[in-house]
Amino acid sequence: MVGMPSAETKRAGSHEPETVRPTKEDAVAATGSELIGGPIGRRALPGTSWWTPVRVIVLVAIGMFALGMVQKLPCYDGAWFFGASSQYTHACYSDIPHLYQGRGFAEGLVPYFDKLSGDMEYLEYPVLTGVFMEVASWLTPGSGSIQDQAKVYWMVNCGMLMVCAAVIAVCVTRTHRRRPWDGLLVALAPAFALTATVNWDLLAVALTAAAMLMWARSRPFAFGVLLGLATAAKLYPFLILGPLLVLCWRAGRWREFGTALRGAGGAWLVVNLPVMLLAPEGWSKFYTFSQERGVDFGSFWLVLSHRMDSPPTTDTVNTLALVLMLLSCLGVAGLALTAPRRPRFAQLAFLIIAAFILTNKVYSPQYVLWLIPLAALARPKWRDFLIWQACEVAYFLGIWMYLAYTTSGDAHKGLPNDGYHVAIVIHLLGTLYLCAVVVRDILMPERDVVRRAGDDDPTGGVLDGAEDTFVLGAAAHPPQHVAHFDGPHVEWGNRGPSAGSGSP
Question: Distance of CA 422 to CAs 88, 300, 381, 411, Å?
């Protein structure tokens, strides 16, 4: 009708942020999109159909999760129970069915309260993960052989972990409003599909992803509560508070950090305190086990131990690993306080968790799940992400082939020590490579694909666009940024958008 604005005109006058299209700015994404018809056209109207980015990415994540379950099919058909080495040659091993009986769930024992037979004595997992495992056991029928029960237990856990995978996909997709399609990095990550059902790590990863979303939405207390719950499920998430402390220090946002810290401490105590008081010996098992555990799979400490005539003791490795981690923390803090522009929260969160993984005395293959959502937010570049993922897939295959070699007796099917050491080095180099490009982005903000598009720190919540109040050295770039809208030029400062001096 005459006088009615067209769809294009409506969009031109809209104040909705323009969605960044990976196929427009990323050569690898554009090439990969040819499999589904090529990059989106310039006349396409995003958001006009049911297929929103969140829905598409969640469905892709669930599909990849299901493919990961299919990859475990040889073990589900018997290799978990009747073939010690075949579960490794098929790369389908999972802790879940083995621990169903090994940690007393088949017998109805209560984690942390009931003592186990054997050397372990108590469940060696944090409390919230123990609750997750126990709930899955309640949903597992007690009829049939122990093997049948263990398979059903694995399936029940897969259903619960699939929910966690969907939560992760939603949270990463919604954390950066202008870059929802970066969530595809998580959904399509091959290491995510391969390792999702090896253990229960997805629970902590989902809670951490939800916490990151809450901080991006400037809800520090909700962030703290979710991060405290994540720490009650796995130890690593609390490390993210370190980078946040330094960023809030630089921006002078002490009140928000204090709110987050109270929320995290309170949530962790609510989960842990009852078990700590009523079953102190069972509750402490996770912490004593972590301290007493020797050098194990995947770490550079294992490579050194295999190649030394007199390997270091566990106490020595604990001390050295702690020193290296503290040095890494100081390095990240120094980077945050001296960078020409305040780093993005996701960048430092990725670096600190990567440092923990690199210096730790054990690297289980599912630990890659800790980094995948953070990597998608810190460095949303398909080439770098896929290089790292290729290294992680190589390690995933390497550890199972090594275990096949050590369990196949005289047949020696699999990967010997030297080959496994190569797989470990590949994993270490892949993680270091991604750390290096993130550090480069921090030191050279113009190379950061997020800031190059006009954003400051979309994952930073109250830090986004905030002025610096403490910097070691002179900042070369102001913190304010210009958001790229289809509508009028909009400047972003400390108090949000303003469309000129006359706006309210």
Answer: 18, 11, 26, 22
